[in-house]
Amino acid sequence: MSLRIRTSALTALTVAALAAGTVLTAPAAGAAPKAAAPKFLSASQLPPHPTSSWTAGPVTEGFPEELGFCVSTEGVPSYDYRYREFRTDLDTGAVQLTVVTDSAALAKALAKHYDDLIRTCADRIEESSPDIEAEGRDYGRLPVEEGARVRGLHTETSWGATDVALLSVGRDGRTVTVVKWGQMGDFGDAPVAAFKRTTSTAVNKLY
Question: Beta-carbon neighbour count of residue 3 at 10 Å?
């Protein structure tokens, strides 16, 4: 089931950017060359799976569908989006997105925007899908670079399917990264401490 974001992301992001003293505009002609691309997590840096090893896919241009459940590009400028997917042999998967914006102020606004989308994801799921019960949890901030926050999401359908996900948003300068881990189960199955370490590694590893 594809659940699309129905909120006005552009409005939220524009307000946040203006509050930071900037505007959502393209860089001027003759701007400095792009910095080196941010680095991604490796398979060994994901929360360990008890019975299966992780496999990392290639780094790919674009926005991953796996984040569309809670996070999307709707209303957000066409930044430099890249992602990497991770898989196990069982029901556990993960994905990391990096977004390079035009300034630290825009990155700060985008990080807050993505975190707000994740924070409100459970409510939007229930509003859009009466057959799904959803609950979100806040696992707090991490003191890494310009900061990161970890949240959890549990969903259960009327026919008994249950899934749990951990999501985090972090920032280093003008780059934002989003990491998602997910599998069948509930909050008791989520490796929160290990995912926090993964998130800190992801942000520290960007540059």
Answer: 16
Q: CA-to-CA distance for 40 and 37, rounded, in angstroms? A: 10
- Is the separation of the CB atoms in 152 and 192 below 8 Å? yes
The ranges of the chain with pLDDT < 70 are 1-35
Q: How many C-beta atoms surround the C-beta of residue 191 within 10 A?
A: 18
Which residues share a beta bridge with 156?
A: 133, 162
Ramachandran region, residue 10 (left: φ > 0; alpha: ψ -120 to 50; beta: rest): alpha
Helices (H), 5-103: 9-19
The CA distances from residue 21 to 15, 46, 205, in Å, are: 10, 36, 28
- pLDDT digits over 140-153, tens only? 999 999 999 999 99
CA distance 206 to 98: 9
Q: Confirm if 51 and 8 have CB atoms less than 8 A apart.
A: no
How far apart CA 96 and CA 184 sit, in angstroms, is 19
Residues 6+ positions from 62 with CB-CB distance below 8 Å: 81, 82, 83
Distance (Å) of CA 109 to CA 16, 54, 80, 203:
5, 32, 16, 17
